[in-house]
Protein 1
Amino acid sequence: MRLSINLLPSRSARRLAKVNRLFALWGGVALLGVGVALGVNLHFEAHLAELNTKKAENETTLKLLEKQLGEIADIKAKRELVRQRLDLVAQLSRSRDLTLRVLDTISQQIPEKVWLTRLTTRGNTLELLGKAQSNALVADLMSALERSLHLTHVDLTRVARPAKEETEMKEFTVTARIQPPPEPVDPKAKSAPKPDGEKK
């Protein structure tokens, strides 16, 4: 007598259990993937928020720097304006001193029997009009002016006897160029380096 056992229900149950475990595993993997994705997304959102905060701070700092640079540029412009005004004052002072020196030179160097009737300046050009008893005295005046450190290019532009006068008096016109004094040298300025091989 043979005994037969039907194993089909048992196999089906095992297969069903295996499929259930597989679905459970896939579900766990899917949930893990969703969790990782959410974690990564939150991390990037936090990092993006931090970057936006730093960007806002940098923009604020940049605006502050731009304001400071504008203030520095304004200070430099004002400093340059003050420097130009000081240079103008110094130039006017030197010009005034030079005019006084020229007048002092003329008053000291003018020969006797020579009289000045008019003195005018146009820029750095000086014009002297006057009278002298002879041409030699006019020549002496020109020689004296040429020896001055403040006058150059002394030139006689006119000499003649006045009309309606019977004397030997001469009228003359002398021009000269006013020589400005040299610019003051800054003692703190460094001397230029000498070329190699030049003797000191």
Protein 2
Amino acid sequence: MLQAVYQTIFKEELLLIEVQESIYDKLAEKFPGFIGQSMFISYRPFLQGKIETEEQKQAFNDLVEFLDNMDNPPSMTDEEKEFYQSTAAEISLEMMQKTTEDKINAVHSGDKWFKENAENIKNYIKYRNFEEYRLSPAYTVANKMRDYLKESGFYDVAIPLIRKTSPAYDKYYVKLIELNEKYEEKLENLSIE
């Protein structure tokens, strides 16, 4: 009896490790280097839980299959590659983890974070509207990646599968959408000022 319990626990732990490693590996394969690492980091906190239901197992398997079948990301120009290599050299794994933690905390504290950071948000929006930024490798790669993820179905297929695989990510995603809807008009007003 006790041996059966231990075997069940062991199988659950192996599945958890497989989920974490497989999704991380798949993201790293599709998005090598700095871009892949930053994607990997942003989902990592939500892939720590156990897969407990058949729906979660199926979603995980579907997600791995989807990532396996995605086309490769668009190529980058030499200037874009150089920009991201220099950026990667300046940003440590710890910095990326801290940014992810801060982003999660900001979503969970919504109103408070928005009020405390309104000036920073305003400055960020202004920066993103500068022509210098719009001509930069950061802008062109961000657009390429956004278009690629949209066209490949990542947003329509992978995100819902991650939500099914991870209840923690699903809660985060719902909160993120609520905040986006709540602050969308305020953000538009900040960009006009």
